[in-house]
Amino acid sequence: MSQHMASPYYIGVDIGGTKIGASTFDVASSSIIDVERFPSEATCNPVEAIARVVDISRRWIDQKGESPKAIGVSVGGMYDAPSGCMKHAPHLPLWDGFPIVSTIQEALQVPVFAENDANACALAEWRHGAGRGCDHLIFLTFGTGLGGGLIMNGELYRGACGLAGEVGQIRVADDGPPLRGKPGCLEGFGSGAGIALVAAAARRQNSNSSLPIQPTAKDVAEAASQGDELALSVLQECGNKLGRGLAMLIDILNPERIVLGSVFARCETLLRPAIEASIAEEAMKQTSAACTIVAAELGDSIGDYGAATIADLGSIGSLTSATTKFRR
After folding, report:
1. Which pick of 30, 72, 111, 216 has the fewest CB atoms within 10 Å?
2. Is residue 218 part of a domain?
3. Are residues 266 and 157 in the same domain?
4. 214 and 254 share a domain?
5. 137 lies in the same domain as 36
6. Residue 179 and residue 292 in one domain
7. Does residue 183 lie in a domain region?
């Protein structure tokens, strides 16, 4: 049973490669109230999926007796803000070019705003998580892949074509997992997929490890926590390379905080020493002293909070096709 909300609310939609979620966000308490999720996959049809989101939203609207102030959408892929269309989503190929914003807006007659998921997560942690109080923030997803969002001077910074913050392409080594078709890229060391590939290559050369032949990042973390030397060396290497990438960002953008998601939040004690040692070696003393590295706080709810934050910014007129601004 949905909780009745006397205060205004938003509806958030989180479109991901494995699941799609819809949620309501209560403005007065700044909290997620209702959540419904259903699976998505490569064959997921956008027309059917959005129709299901609309049905869920209509049910909530009927229950609450009023429409939301706005709807926010976190898009798991490249998103074109001026058109409101999915641009490219590797895990959802049928969605390329799909008009997400106009489809939902026409069905529900409510203002709809959207951002790519990395930007949405940056906004979520900035407003409701580990980035509260910052005007200069970098958020890195550090999940299966490595995406990023930038808050610069108290504003979401998209860049010239909406891809600012995509730091996974930065090359930090001469060789490494060929993610993004670029051996040595930061995503090859700062992501779950990258850690698994580094570990698999090391495991083939070492039969004395407890790691399986094709380990996952979770396998590596669990083995490292039990003292497996190979797993510990893998996380040392990945932390070192990630620290190199962060040092570049620290010197170029001079953030006051970097928030690292998913994998770092679960393996902070195993990764932090190598990351910090690398930053100390590579970054300027002044810029590194001004920046703290912290784990994301919102966990599995980050997509819901991200979508709600997009709706919030849009509803107060601070979200446009060119910039997103929010002044505390």
Report:
1. 30
2. yes
3. yes
4. yes
5. no
6. yes
7. yes
Q: Are residues 265 and 223 in the same domain?
A: yes
pLDDT, tens digit, for every residue of 103-157? 999 999 999 999 999 999 999 999 999 999 999 999 999 998 999 999 999 999 9
Query: How many domains is the chain partitioned into structurally?
Result: 2
User: Would strands 71-75 and 9-15 be described as parallel, antiparallel, or unpaired?
Assistant: parallel
| 3-class DSSP string for the chain | CCCCCCCCEEEEEEECCCEEEEEEEECCCCEEEEEEEEECCCCCCHHHHHHHHHHHHHHHHHHHCCCCCCEEEEECCEEECCCCEEEECCCCHHHCCCEHHHHHHHHHCCCEEEEEHHHHHHHHHHHHCCCCCCCCEEEECCCCCCCEEEEECCEEECCCCCCCCCHHHCECCCCCCCHHHCCCEHHHCCCHHHHHHHHHHHHHCCCCCCCCCCCCHHHHHHHHHCCCHHHHHHHHHHHHHHHHHHHHHHHHHCCCEEEECHHHHHHHHHHHHHHHHHHHHHCCHHHHHCCEEEECCCHHHHHHHHHHHHHHHHHCCCECCCCEECCC
- pLDDT tens digits, residue range 56-108? 999 999 999 999 999 999 999 889 988 999 998 888 999 999 999 999 999 99
Alpha carbon distance 59, 64 (integer Å): 9
Residue 242 and residue 293 in one domain: yes
Q: Are residues 239 and 155 in the same domain?
A: yes
CATH number at residue 231: 3.30.420.40
The torsion defined by the Cα of 237, 141, 293 and 182, in degrees rounded to 10, comes to 40
Q: Is residue 177 over pLDDT 80?
A: yes
In a domain, 247, yes or no: yes
Tell me which of 138 and 17 has the higher pLDDT. 138
Tokens describing residue 99: 């008009």
pLDDT attached to residue 156: 93
**Same domain flag for 139 and 283:** yes
Domain span at residue 212 reads: 131-297
Q: Does 252 have pLDDT greater than 60?
A: yes
Give the separation between CA 209 and CA 203, rounded to whole angstroms.
7
